Amino acid sequence: MHLHPGAARAVSRPLAFLAAVCLFVAAPATGARAAAAAPDPARTEAAVLTVPAIGVEDLRVVPYEGTTDDAAGTRIQDRGDAASPYGEHGGAGPGERGNYLVTAHRLSAGGALYELPSLREGDEVRVAHAGREYTYEITGTRSTSFRSAASLAEQRAPVPGRPGEPPTRAMITLSTCATPEDDAAGNHWRDALGNPEHRIDKIGVLTSTR
């Protein structure tokens, strides 16, 4: 079918207008998708941990997707770094509402948290991350059993020790092995990764951000 030249121009104008509108609408959507895909610094950038009371200074904390002291986390700790899990069974990021989980070796790979058991209530923990410094204050101590699902759930809960309770503030859990204590008690159980049954956890709350 052939259109009169005037009719063809009349048809082309609306089509051109519709194409322009589609292009205008699509452009912002593309930008929104790009923004949504931007990596979360809390999940991609390492933090730096300082705990003056036990001589820990500038300890690198590497985030990874997983849970406390799993294979991926153990590999990070074996390099002498601390590990911080996120995801379904992990924790919050530095300064975020919830439980910022940090684990490191006590005896091997430099024993970064060798003195953790001596940390006391009121001691400061500082975390530098993405241009900010977060200061936490130690408020308590927990013991976690690797042989108890309930105990592990308490360690990993958004409010440490209280699974199911919604978090209202930023908290931190510093965790390391209780190997000397377990061995002294005659408990030589180890999991597949060499972890003893118990972990010593120091709990803190965020007190300042700068």
Structure description:
This protein has 2 domains: 1-38; 41-209, Sortase (Sortase, Chain: A), CATH 2.40.260. The chain has 5 helices and 8 strands. It has helices at 5-36, 41-44, 71-78, 149-156, 179-184; strands at 47-51, 56-65, 82-86, 98-103, 124-129, 132-145, 170-177, 198-209. It has an 8-stranded mixed beta sheet with strand order 3-2-1-5-6-8-7-4. The termini are far apart.
Q: Write down the secondary-structure element order.
A: HHEEHEEEEHEHE
Give the fraction of residues assigned to helices: 25-40%
> Mind telling me the CATH superfamily name of the largest domain?
Sortase
Task: Identify the strand order in the major beta sheet.
Answer: 3-2-1-5-6-8-7-4
Low-confidence stretches: 7-12, 14-35
Layout of secondary structure:
Layout: H1 5-36, H2 41-44, E1 47-51, E2 56-65, H3 71-78, E3 82-86, E4 98-103, E5 124-129, E6 132-145, H4 149-156, E7 170-177, H5 179-184, E8 198-209
Parallel strand pairs: 2-3, 4-7
Antiparallel strand pairs: 1-2, 1-5, 5-6, 6-8, 7-8
What's a concise summary of this model?
The protein is of the alpha+beta class and 210 residues long. The chain has helices at 5-36, 41-44, 71-78, 149-156, 179-184; strands spanning 47-51, 56-65, 82-86, 98-103, 124-129, 132-145, 170-177, 198-209. It has an eight-stranded mixed sheet.
